[in-house]
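Exercise: predict the fold of this chain.
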Amino acid sequence: MPPLMFLAVVGAAGIAGYRLLSSLARYGQAARKEEARVRRATAPVRDLGNLEWDEVAGVYRPRAQRDN
């Protein structure tokens, strides 16, 4: 009888572990999808207009508005 009880406990623990791991995997996928959705929504593309090369910084910067 004790071996049968041991197998029942091990089986129940296995099932509980499987359910826990599968729910964690589903939660991780949902979290990654939500994070990507938020990132796309909060990072709109901005039009910077004409760019000019900044030699000092080594990057392109928006062209300064010059009053002529």
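Check your answer against the key: The longest helix spans residues 2-42.
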